[in-house]
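Duplicate of earlier report; Phosphohistidine phosphatase SixA input re-posted below.
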Amino acid sequence: MGESPCLPHVPRRLPMHIYLMQHGAAFPKEVDPEQPLSPVGAEQVESSAKAMKSLGIKPEVIIASPKKRSRQTAARVAAALGVPESDIMVSEAVKATANSYVTLEFLAGLPRVESVLIAGHLPNLERLAALFVAADGKASIAFQNGGLTCIDAPRLENGQGTLLFHITPKHLRAIAGA
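Output:
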């Protein structure tokens, strides 16, 4: 992993709900070097977004990595939830190999928002979730393409987050009625 399990204190003005979604399934590199969402991945994201809408989840900001599959995931979720495209941010801070400290500093620098969705990648999402919910950063949360995790983060410090839910794509499809 190469990261210290302790996060530096990153001041935050208010609590934040952090939604984490691994992008939908993508085409293999051999088929398309840009690895956009596959038809299966597009369906995963569509049904996840429909479930989010049913649950009343509407993040104020959606963050994607520069990778096409992440940007497509963010755009589909935003469209389904009525989040303006202008509220989608693209940042290297949420790429697969990003250091979790960089991701946290990015989150701390956001304007006053109470909820954010990161449409991201492994291993960054796993590391970030682990640092929020376990003081030693050694929690294990198994992400799946199109699944949704929510962490309540009153402070951006290790072990200070609460895992509110972790919903698999299968259960999101059921919620969406798909």
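The longest strand covers residues 16-22.

Merging into the original ticket.
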